[in-house]
Specification:
By secondary structure, the protein is of the alpha+beta class. Helix content is 25%, strand content 29%. The chain has a single domain, classed as Beta-lactamase Inhibitory Protein, Chain:B, domain 1 (2-Layer Sandwich). The termini are far apart. One of its GO terms (cellular component) is Bam protein complex.
């Protein structure tokens, strides 16, 4: 009885590991999905509403910097530990038209 309890406990702890090759892990996509073609469509002088029609609602609008909108994208590959991150910042003028666009590819792992 004691041996059966010990084996059951060892099996339960074995499932708590971070690497379990036999389990399916799905890919996770977070944020705004946009392509390079979408970014190329954004031109200086476009209104905020036109940009949101192309890219969607920004994920982050900082109340301390209302002149910029942050579009974030992150992809986690489920079968590996690789992530891909991308950030797009659209800067606006005082009359809510596009001043310029800044893109960063942040590949973490």
């Amino acid at each position: 009885m004691r041996l059966a309890t010990l084996c059951l406990f060892a099996l339960a702890l074995g499932g708590c590991g971070s690497y379990t090759p036999y389990l399916y892990k799905t890919d996770v996509i977070q944020g705004n999905v946009y392509s390079d073609a979408d970014i190329a469509r954004i031109q200086r002088g476009m209104s905020r509403a036109e940009v949101e029609r192309i890219l969607g609602t920004p994920q982050l609008v900082d109340p301390f910097h209302p002149d910029r909108a942050n579009y974030l994208y992150r992809y986690f590959a489920g079968d590996s530990k690789h992530t891909f991150s991308r950030r797009l910042v659209v800067y606006y003028t005082a009359d809510n038209t596009v001043a310029h666009v800044e893109q960063q590819n942040l590949t973490a792992k």
